[in-house]
Write a structure and sequence with these properties.
Layout: H1 6-11, E1 21-22, H2 33-45, H3 55-75, E2 83-86, H4 89-100, E3 109-113, H5 122-125, E4 133-137, H6 148-151, E5 159-165, H7 177-186, E6 190-194, H8 206-209, E7 213-217, E8 227-231, H9 233-238, H10 263-282, H11 289-316, E9 321-323, E10 337-342, H12 347-354, E11 359-360, E12 362-364, H13 369-374, E13 383-387, H14 394-412
Parallel strand pairs: 1-11, 3-4, 3-5, 5-6, 6-7
Antiparallel strand pairs: 2-8, 7-8, 9-10, 10-13, 12-13
């Protein structure tokens, strides 16, 4: 496997020009230059409302379409109309629930997990006021992930929807959502996947996995603050509209984008695709956009595995620190989002001390409060989280661990 040209990679992220080390990427990654360029170009030359007959309005509509087509390529959607843009994953999940609400009857069941971000739990629990039964797919205590054997006894002929995370933003393990989708479909239900913690790290293939709804944030995947929801076209067509009454059921995806999406945000998706395909080309790969995107994520995974293994090895060598979740990275099943805790030391105290070392990281529950509480890790300011992406380096990991060792030794003294 070719190793990433880190000089090239870092040159593509304008925010990496100072001495800060960004290890809070699961909260928001740096924006790639081509995505930033798309936003600037739109706001400078196309900043009008779509739908007009004049040339600049037509150009704005073209930019929105390019962004939708790029997002469709990124997730391998069957058509661009299967892409819905929104302000955030939280907003899109709430909108999806509202658009689906009339499809549920009293006594129907929705299953959520305790391993998810609240964005893919909270909206669905509100269906309980309409007589929908909410069940919880528990985290498997032995494997520290979601197992179908734990889901099976929860499903009945009244189960309509299962909401699941592709990767927990605390535990970092990749779940086999294709296997989940087959299992759930065989029992007559739909699947909704929160992919926020997955999208920056691995290739997405919604068709191969046969997922029904798949949602992630662009600002955590090298774009601006915004989000994408994929939905199978036939399912989107059946959703209630969230826009004006004259937006009919067949007006997909417009009926699900009330007020229209941020055009510059949507257009930036085309820049994310350009960054990924350009990354592959820079490393000698040829092919169409989808093949180049796959090659880019192969390169990204290899780099991130190096980072993950470096930090996990350092933690394993200590007797005062433990990983939350699995402490290995077998078969690249772990993304470089690693939560951990030092024995007897407040997590907030450590994270705040890291500011003085020019290292950005975070502590708390990361809006996965149900999981943190279920793991009994909600004391002492929660857990520490180091969330890396491919533009981080092994040298930065070493800088991090040296700083952590220094802070902990001073606390012990």
């Amino acid at each position: 496997m070719t190793q990433l040209d880190m000089t090239y990679v870092q040159s593509q992220f304008p925010g990496l020009t100072d001495d800060w080390v960004f290890f809070d990427n699961a909260g928001g990654a740096q924006i790639a230059k081509p995505a930033l360029d798309r936003m600037t170009e739109f706001l400078t030359h196309r900043n009008v409302q779509i739908g007009g007959s004049y040339a600049v309005s037509q150009s704005a509509a073209e930019a929105l379409l390019k962004g939708r087509q790029a997002a469709a390529t990124l997730v391998n959607a069957a058509r661009a109309e299967e892409i819905v843009f929104g302000a955030s994953t939280t907003v899109l999940m709430g909108n999806l629930m509202q658009a689906m609400r009339s499809q549920f009857s009293e006594g129907d069941e929705v299953i959520v997990t305790m391993a998810d971000h609240e964005s893919n739990i909270g909206p669905w629990t509100r269906l309980a006021e309409f007589g929908v039964t909410i069940k919880v797919w528990p985290l498997n205590a032995e494997t520290m992930d979601l197992q179908l054997s734990d889901l099976e006894p929860l499903m009945t002929d009244r189960t309509r929807l299962v909401c699941v995370t592709h990767v927990s933003n605390i535990l970092g393990q990749v779940h086999p959502v294709g296997d989940f989708a087959r299992f759930i479909h065989d029992r007559g239900a739909l699947i909704c996947v929160d992919a926020v913690a997955y999208a920056p790290h691995r290739l997405i293939d919604v068709q191969a996995w046969d997922v029904d709804y798949y949602v992630f944030s662009l600002y955590k995947a090298y774009g601006p603050h915004g989000a994408v929801m994929y939905g199978k076209y036939d399912l989107l067509a059946e959703l209630d509209g969230l826009y004006h009454y004259f937006y009919g059921k067949d007006k997909v995806p417009g009926k699900l984008e009330p007020g229209n999406p941020s055009y510059e945000m949507a257009y930036a998706a085309d820049g994310i695709l350009e960054y990924l395909t350009g990354l592959a080309r820079h490393h000698g790969v040829t092919g169409d956009d989808r093949a180049l995107t796959k090659a880019a994520f192969d390169l990204i995974t290899a780099q991130e595995d190096r980072l993950t293994d470096r930090l996990l090895k350092w933690i394993a060598a200590r007797n005062d620190c433990r990983v939350i979740g699995t402490d290995t990275n077998m078969d690249s099943r772990r993304v470089p989002t690693i939560c951990f805790r030092f024995d007897g030391i407040n997590s907030g105290k450590i994270a705040q001390a890291m500011d003085g070392y020019g290292i950005a990281m975070r502590f708390g529950d990361f809006h996965s409060r149900r999981l943190i509480e279920g793991l009994a890790e909600d004391h002492d300011d929660g857990v520490l989280r180091v969330s890396m992406v491919h533009y981080n380096t092994v040298e930065q990991v070493d800088r991090l661990t040296a700083a952590l060792a220094d802070i902990v030794s001073k606390d012990a003294a």
